[in-house]
Amino acid sequence: MLNRRLIVLIFIIFLVPLFYLRGQNPVDLVKVSLLSDAETLKPGDSAWLLVNLDIEPGWHVYWQTSGEAGYPTNVKWEAVGAEIGVLYFPRPDYYEFMDMASYVHNGSIALLAQITLDEDWEGKEFIEIRGKLSTLVCNEANCLPYETELRLQIPVASTTRLSLNGKNQVMKAKENWPLSPPPECKLSLQATARDVIMEIQHPTLGNLNPEKFNFFPIGNFFVHGSVQNFSINKEFSTLRLSLPRQLGSETPAFLSGVLTHPDLGTGWLLRWEMNSIVYGEIGKEWAQSGLDLQISEEMEELDLEMLGVMLGIVLVAFAIWVLGKGGGPSQSKSIRNASRWSAFALFSFGFWLGFPSKNKEEPKGIQWKKWSPEIQKSLMEKGNAFYVDYTAKWCASCIGNKRVYAYDSVSYTHLTLPTKA
C-alpha cells in the first residue's frame, strides 16, 4: 500500500510541471466577441460595431500604436455593400519592460468602429460582416501572436432599430475614449530636423503637476520610449513637451496623440494639422497672445559653411579683377605692386574662407549595411565572418538585447561586415 502511494505521489510530482511546460495557448488568454447596437439597419444609415476583449489577469495586449516594442492591435474588415470606419480605442496604459516603453490594455476593453450601409443596397436580407483581429498577448515572460476571425450578420430593413443592450454597451465604451480638448485650448507644434516641440495652452493645465503627465503618440513619427519631460508656464497655463523624431520616417498629414493626467479623466486626444505647424494660423494666434514661440534653429540658422564658400568665390573673383585692373603695363610701378599685393591678399583670404575648415568626424558605433543574399554569398565564398541582425518589433526581449550595441565593451571589429536584415 505504501509503495502504491509513493508511486502516485511521484507521478503527480512529475505530472504537474508538464502542465506548465506546455506552450500557452493565446485563445485561453483573450476572449473576443463582436456585436452591434443595431438589431436592423436601413440602407444609408450607420451603426456601431463593438469588439469586446476580455484579457486574463497578468497579461496585456497593445494599443493602436504599440510603442517601443510590441505589435499594434488592429482589425481588417470585410463587408460588401458597406463602409467601415476607423477603429476607436480607449486610452492606453503606460507599460515599461527592460527599460522599454509600450502602450497597452489590460482587463476588459471595447473597440468601436462605425459601419454605414450603402444607400443603393441591393444585397441579401442581411449584411454580413467579417473581420480578422490581430494582436500580441504578452506578460513579463512571454509574448504570443493572436489572431481570430470575427463574423456578424445584421438584418437589413426599412428602418434602423437599435437594441437597448447595444446602446448601453456603446455608451459605456465611449466613456473610456480620450476626449477632444476644450474649444478654448490652443495647440502649437514646432518640428525641427530632430525634434518635435509641442505646446498646449489651457487654464486647466496651469495648476497640474507636470510629473504626472503622459503623452501617447499615435503612429511612428515620434521616437517611442524617449524620456518625457513636461514643463509648465504657469503665467500662460502652457504645457510644453519636446520629443525626438524618428529618423527616416515619412511626414504624415497630421500628428496626433493622447495626453493623460490623473486630473484629465480619460485624457485629451490632440491633433496638429501639418499646415498649422510653426507658421500656420495657430502659431500666429500664439504669437499674438504674447507666448514665446521659438522658431527652430534649423529654420533660422543659415548654412555658414556654404555662405563661406560663396563669399570665398566672390573674393577670388574680385582678386582677379583687381589684378587685371591695376596690374597692366600702362600703370605705374607702385600701382602695379599695390594691385598685386591686394590681389594676393584677397585671393588668400577668399581661398581660406571657402576652404572646408572642419574635418568630417568618423561615424561612431557599428556601421551597418543592409543584408542581402548577394552580400552573404560573397562573404561566405571569401571565408569571411559576418554578422546578421534580424528581429521583430513584437519581440521585446530581442529589442532589449540590441542595447548591447551601444556598450563600449562590445566590439565588432573582427566582423567583415555587420548587416541588418
Strand order of the largest sheet: 1-3-9-6
Overall average pLDDT: 79
Largest pleated sheet: 4 strands, antiparallel
The residue fraction in helices comes out at 10-25%
Shape: elongated
The span between the termini is 62 Å
Radius of gyration: 32 Å
Number of strands: 22
Provide a descriptive summary of the structure in words:
The chain is 25% helix and 32% strand. It is an alpha+beta fold. Strands 1-3-9-6 form a 4-stranded antiparallel β-sheet, covered by helices on one side. It has a 4-stranded antiparallel β-sheet with strand order 13-14-17-16. Strand 21, helix 8 and strand 22 form a beta-alpha-beta unit. Helix 5 packs antiparallel against helix 6. The model is unreliable at 8-22 and 279-302 (pLDDT under 50).
How do the strands and helices of this protein lay out in sequence?
Blueprint: H1 2-21, E1 30-36, E2 38-40, E3 46-55, E4 61-67, E5 74-78, E6 82-84, E7 93-97, E8 100-105, E9 108-117, E10 126-138, E11 143-155, E12 161-162, H2 164-174, E13 186-191, E14 195-201, E15 214-218, E16 231-233, E17 238-244, E18 254-260, E19 268-273, H3 281-288, H4 297-300, H5 304-326, H6 333-354, E20 369-370, H7 373-382, E21 386-389, H8 396-401, E22 417-420
Parallel strand pairs: 20-22, 21-22
Antiparallel strand pairs: 1-3, 2-12, 3-9, 4-8, 5-10, 6-9, 7-8, 10-11, 13-14, 14-17, 15-18, 16-17, 18-19
